[in-house]
Structures are given as structure tokens and as C-alpha cells.
């Protein structure tokens, strides 16, 4: 049984039509979506809309589609974050494109489509790969205990709680508690 604060449980509840689950997901992910939208908008002056508007629009689009049952493969927090990233990136790029069009000739109309294609392509750009590697190292550095770093690395490599517990000769519940602590440390850290 999943804990009451589990994103996976909230996803299942959302799929079942529970609007409270959507509010809990909103509370959990809104600030991360705002940060992503801010990054995608590259600090441009935004007279019509801002990164919060993009995050609102992205979450609304996600919620409506989830309510319509359009995400049958959405099962856990990793699936959810990838989906929210794609929706938010598309919304931010569309906003930037539309605002350039309003300025009559400012920017190339196909730039945004190329960025979306790059975002969704199988191979990341070297700059994006470097950014991800840097963020990964920054997050690992936040883990003050070597055991926490080991557990995080094992989990990111696809290990189950049971496998990690067996390797560390402890109970799976211990791994769950440590993963909860890792998430709390990472979520409490302001993003650059």
C-alpha cells in the first residue's frame, strides 16, 4: 500500500476523478513548473504573460487530458515529471513565438519548433547534457551522508527498494525512509 502523500497514489486518484488529488499534485509541482518555464523563456520581458501563466496553462492542460483518460501509461512521479516538462516547455516556447509575432518580425517563426523537436529528440544537445550532469552533481552534493548518496545512485540506476535493502543488509522500510529524506533535501533546495 502506498503512503497517503505518494505522488503515485495521487496519480491513481486523479485518474479515478478525484479533484483533491489534482490539487495535491498542483501544490507539489507548481513551483518546479514555474522554474522550468522561466528557464525556457530565457528571462525575456513578457508583457502579455509570464512563467506563472505558462505553469498554470501547462498544469491545466495536463489536468484536463488526465481527466479525459488520455494518459493511460502515466503511473509514477517520473512519468508525471517528464510529461509536465514536455507540456510546460511547449507552452513556454509557444508563448515566446507568439510574443515575437506580436512584435512584427521579431524572431524566426521556426526557431521554436526546432527547440521543441530538440527537447523531444532521443539525443540531448551537449549543452543540455552538461547542464543535467552539473545539476546531478549539485543534487548529490546536498546529500551529507555517503549512504544517502549510494541509495540515490542505486535508485536512479533503477534498483528497487528491496534490492537496495538486500545489498545494504537492512529493511526495505529503512530504504523508504532514506529516500523520503533524500526527496525532502532535494525539494527544499532552491533551484538555480
Kindly describe this structure.
The protein folds into two domains: 1-123, no CATH class; 124-192, Arc Repressor Mutant, subunit A (Orthogonal Bundle), CATH 1.10.10. 71% of the residues lie in helices and 0% in strands. The relative contact order is 0.08. The mean pLDDT is 77. It has 192 residues and is mainly α. It has helices at 7-15, 19-41, 51-67, 77-102, 111-120, 126-141, 146-156, 161-168, 172-188. The chain is globular, with a radius of gyration of 19 Å. It is built from nine helices and no strands.
How many separate structural domains?
2
- Rg measurement, Å: 19 Å
Q: Which class best fits the helix and strand makeup?
A: mainly alpha
The secondary-structure element order is: HHHHHHHHH
* Basic shape: globular
Average residue-wise pLDDT: 77
Helix content: over 70%
Give the total of beta strands: 0
Amino acid at each position: 500500500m502506498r503512503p497517503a502523500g505518494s505522488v503515485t497514489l495521487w496519480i491513481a486518484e486523479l485518474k479515478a476523478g478525484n479533484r483533491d488529488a489534482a490539487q495535491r499534485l498542483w501544490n507539489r509541482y507548481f513551483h518546479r513548473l514555474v522554474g522550468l518555464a522561466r528557464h525556457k523563456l530565457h528571462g525575456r520581458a513578457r508583457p502579455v504573460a509570464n512563467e506563472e501563466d505558462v505553469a498554470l496553462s501547462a498544469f491545466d492542460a495536463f489536468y484536463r487530458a488526465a481527466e479525459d483518460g488520455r494518459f493511460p501509461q502515466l503511473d509514477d512521479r517520473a512519468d508525471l515529471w517528464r510529461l509536465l516538462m514536455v507540456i510546460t516547455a511547449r507552452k513556454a516556447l509557444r508563448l515566446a513565438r507568439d510574443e515575437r509575432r506580436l512584435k512584427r518580425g521579431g524572431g524566426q517563426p521556426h526557431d521554436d519548433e526546432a527547440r521543441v523537436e530538440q527537447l523531444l529528440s532521443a539525443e540531448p544537445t551537449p549543452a543540455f547534457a552538461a547542464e543535467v550532469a552539473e545539476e546531478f552533481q549539485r543534487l548529490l552534493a546536498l546529500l551529507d551522508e555517503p549512504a544517502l548518496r549510494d541509495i540515490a545512485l542505486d535508485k536512479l540506476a533503477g534498483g528497487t527498494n528491496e534490492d537496495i535493502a538486500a545489498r545494504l543488509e537492512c529493511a526495505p522500510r529503512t530504504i523508504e525512509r532514506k529516500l523520503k529524506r533524500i526527496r525532502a533535501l532535494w525539494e527544499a533546495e532552491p533551484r538555480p
